[in-house]
Amino acid sequence: MSKKVLGSIIVILIIAVGFYYQFQLSEDNKVKKVGFIYVGPVTDFGWTYEHDQGRKAVVEAFGETVETTYAESVSEGPDAERAITQMARDHDLIFTTSFGYMNPTIKVAKKFKKVKFEHATGYQRADNVATYAARFYEGRHLIGLIAGGMTQTNTIGYIASFPIPEVIRGINAAYLAATSVNPTVEFKIVWVYTWFDPGKEADAAKALIDQGADIIMQHTDSAAAMTIAEEEGIYAFGQASDMIQFGPNAQLTAIIDDWAPYYVERTQALFDKTWESGDTWGGMPTGMVKLADISDDVPKVVVNLVNEAREGILSGDIHPFTGPINKQDGTAWLAEGEVASDGDLLGMDFYVEGVNGVIPN
Amino acid sequence: MDLLIAIFQGIIIASTPLVLAAVGELVVEKSGVLNLGVEGMMIVGAVTSFIITYETGSHFLGLTAAIISAGLVASLFGLLTQYLLSNQVATGLALTLFGLGLASLIGQTYSGISLDTFPILDVYLLTEIPIIGSLLFNFDYLVYLSIIIVVSVYYFLNKTKFGLVLTAIGDNHDSAHSLGYSVKMVRLFAIIFGGSCAGLGGAYLSLVQTPMWVENMTAGRGWIALAIVVFSVWRPLWVLVGAYVFGGITIIQLHVQAFGVNIGAQYMSMMPYLVTIVVLVFISMNKNRLAVNAPNCLNRLFTSDL
Amino acid sequence: MFKLQKKEIIDQSSLYTVPLIAIGCSLIFVFILFLLIGKNPILAIFIIFIEPLLSIFGLSELIVKSTPLIIIALGLSIGFRAGVWNIGAEGQYTIGALFGGAAILAFYPNNGIWILPLSFFIAIVGGILWGMIPAFFKARFNTNEILVSLMLTYVATLLLSGMVYGPLKNPDGFNFPESRLFHDSGTLPIIFPGTRAHIGFLIAIILVGLMYYLLKKHKFGYHVRVSGESPRALVFSGRSTNYMVYLSFIISGAFAGLAGVIEVSGPVGQLVPAIPVGYGFTAIIVAFLGRLNPLGIFFAGFLLALTYIGGEAAQIRLGLPNAITGVFQGVLLFSLLAAEAFTNYTISLKKIRGNI
Question: What is d(CA A323, CA A339) in angstroms, rounded to the nearest whole number?
């Protein structure tokens, strides 16, 4: 009997003290709460890591007036809607940072009209749901130029994750840029069907190197390929974040996703009560896509070429997808001087002419 | 020719963590215990070896840490299943869950760090021999260690008294017990050995294959190790074959893709699993061979000891 | 060392007190863990274990999360009692989701109350078929069912992703790997308006009752018990051992397939590659935590769902790392599994003997 009494006392104590602390937690209303839902761990040094850097930038910019929270490794299945709802109950602004959160975000937004939502890389919006994404293909264009200018074997290895438009767009952009400086360049593409499996990414990098690639590009999240490139003494490009610590000699440059300016801007809009739904497809001009420092190994000529192209993209004079471009099967896609529409880019499901291989299905 | 050598090297490197984890699990299963926690033990080995190597600068200490830490979590499994008679399947799954969580917890501040390359065997002259040199004498030390472990396990199980006792216990724990052998102690040793091997396999991932630490970096290899044990029909030397077949399918499928051949990567990725099933069925059709090697008491509770 | 002796009669009260003590032990463990990483332990424990029970939202989400766990675990418990090891419920669950979801999509945009029952039926058939593969090989060649069913899980996951990237892709979805959202006739009704709690939970409760009845009162329960204790005795009772193998896989496959279609037509509402999130594996743990007893499984399913939901809340509110949830679940399971020993056996200290 005494055990039961003791047990009940402990439970009641925990509940009482818990309530007490919880009331201390519930803060005054002047503080804005901004939440982030991540698909991977914040320590992945890739996609999620960069989003978390953006969150930290928000903390830095607004200090005591905001409180940020996050939930990491949230599966894109049934758990996503719950995690988002959990946040929506007491947050003002929520960023859901993976494509798979699209429908859950829309569903939760219907129930919480006063909360603002921002969904990354999706295409569905509502009055309180904005979407944002980055034109990574602009970065791919630049690294394509470097790869084309630097390859000795004329073979570029490309580690691709899943055959979605985003990835296919990246392949095409890099390929077009690389062949523009070196028409004999060939791309070897390997689909690994994972965003994140360091071992498999490393195997893929090795296979590509063995088949003659002397530069590796990747559209997967880990730094595994970079470590292999460093080991084998060849070059590679960082993905999503600066991976220089994994390849001090190997990294030519990295495409960096810089979400900080956007996150700060949207949080500011929340304070100013000017927040509106809309679609932001930022790129290099808005600072959402950046390049890391270009390696000293890259010849001056190529660096100049890259800088020129970067200027062009920043000023809007250059679009990586400017005609004439044919599709892989030879049919015309863009006429001379024609620029690809955003709609075409968003749903891209074909290789451009010259790319070897078939998009798996 | 160079490409073939490179493919061969790629297969060996991709397979070595599987060899290590599978040969450990083989000993465990031979003693009549099924430990489904290989994945958890591997990841614990991966994270501790990385941390210790980074902090001390010594690969040797890192490997030692992997052996000890994975052995420790395995002994937890051993105590629960052998002495507290918990269900092996459930305990193994719990071990996987626990190991994955524990590893990400203690590894949190160690992501984003890179290690020095693991030393590679370079025997004067031998490595220089054309073809054979690169085929046989040009790997990291762990590759040779993995083969040594496999051969030792083979010798141990078939030629030593202790090994025969272990096999006997796996085949019929009641009669082994009545002969006076301590079933539980032997099994506990086997479980700890299996854990240490899995830990080494994990260390191979974080020290050799990709010298870095990230959460969930084992990505299901522990489960493949389980399949390899069955694939090998519980014969140590066949673990090598099994692991190289598994690693081989992965590597060759990447090479085929790089040649520009469309093979439907998704369906190709199913191949190792389907092949395992076919092999499993195939070996079990041959009743004699299975009867000779498969431990009869696998996953069966042993209560009457001590 | 110590000695375990099977209790002749299990003390009924220990059935409840021992798990509670195990939960207490793991709470003490996490208490220390929270202290070590510098978080307020009482607040953390409150947020994880108490708070979800105090709101409609928390309760409804508990219902949503525990439904598939309970249903799959119920199906598995039959096989586990009988000594048939289906580790691949995750695969059967995935196939159920795929078959059921494909059926719902096939009828888009037709309406009718027959669409859901039909797709449920198809999903169950899918789950059974997937479960029949290891069952057939086990029965025919004595192939290890643990490994075959496990391998088939990976195949099922890849098959689902192949379908979602291919034929089942939303035609208006910019080539993203998702099916279209199910229309209303393909979505489960909600029990409590404003929440996600769907009638799948009622199905789970009915199944708990059904299982309880079958195991306690029906001849079926007798066969299951006999088979687990001694396969030969089953033969004497007039059934072949293969009968139990097939039956176990049919039941667990059917239940897992059902859970799959409930999940896609309920909380998810479409087919996505991330449907398999490990419910099939977690359900194995649920089955054992619940001691393979239908009522026990019901509570175990709730407890595990609670750790997921509470862990997530603690992550958001207190910035606890996600890994804590996994560690805690592991410790909880270890202590509960260890606690089993104290309910089923009497323990006494004893000196070691033996040759080795």
Answer: 6
Q: Which of B212, B257, B260 sits opposite A246 (nearest CB)?
A: B212
The CATH number assigned to the domain with range C38-320 reads: 1.10.3470
The CATH number of the domain where A127 resides is what? Answer: 3.40.50.2300
Residue C354: what pLDDT? Answer: 45
Does residue B257 belong to any structural domain of this protein? yes
Residue A155, domain member (yes or no): yes
Average pLDDT, integer, range C44-66? 90
pLDDT at B111: 81
Is residue C148's pLDDT more than 70? yes
Same domain for A125 and A165, yes or no, is no
Pick from B206, B257, B263 the residue to mutate for testing the A interface (most A CBs within 10 Å): B257
Confidence at B125, pLDDT banded by 50, 70, 90 = low
Number of domains in chain A: 2
CA distance B47 to chain C (A): 14
Residues 187-216 of A with CB under 8 A from C: 193
Structural domain that includes position A108 = 29-134
Domain that holds residue B201: 2-293
Pairing of strands A251-257, A116-120: unpaired
Average confidence score pLDDT of chain B: 86
Residues A181 and A101 in one domain: no
CB distance A190–B262 less than 8 Å? no
Task: Return the CATH number at B172.
Answer: 1.10.3470
Give the DSSP H/E element, type plus range, for residue A166. Answer: helix A165-181
Residue B228 touches chain C, beta carbons under 8 Å = no
Sheet holding A215-218, edge to edge: A186-191, A155-160, A215-218, A235-240, A251-257, A289-291
Q: How far is B117 from chain C (nearest CA, A)?
A: 29
**CA distances in angstroms from A57 to A60, A118, A143, C140, listed in the order given:** 5, 17, 27, 62
Which residue stretches of chain A have pLDDT < 50? none
Query: Which candidate from B214, B258, B262 shows the least CB-CB separation from A360?
Result: B262
Is residue B177 assigned to a domain?
Answer: yes
Tell whether A357 is covered by a domain: no
Cβ–Cβ contact A43 with C under 8 A:
no
The per-residue b/e assignment along C110-121, b for 16 or more CB within 10 angstroms, e otherwise, is eeeeebbebbbb
Domains in chain B, number? 1
Q: What is the pLDDT of residues A235-280, one digit of tens each?
A: 999 998 899 999 999 999 999 999 999 999 999 999 999 999 999 9
CB C290 within 8 A of CB C73: yes
- CA-CA distance, A88 to A345, in Å (whole number)? 32
Which ipTM score applies to this complex?
0.87
Query: Which residues of chain B neighbour A360 with C-beta distances below 8 Å?
Result: 262, 264-266
Does the pLDDT at position C326 exceed 80? yes
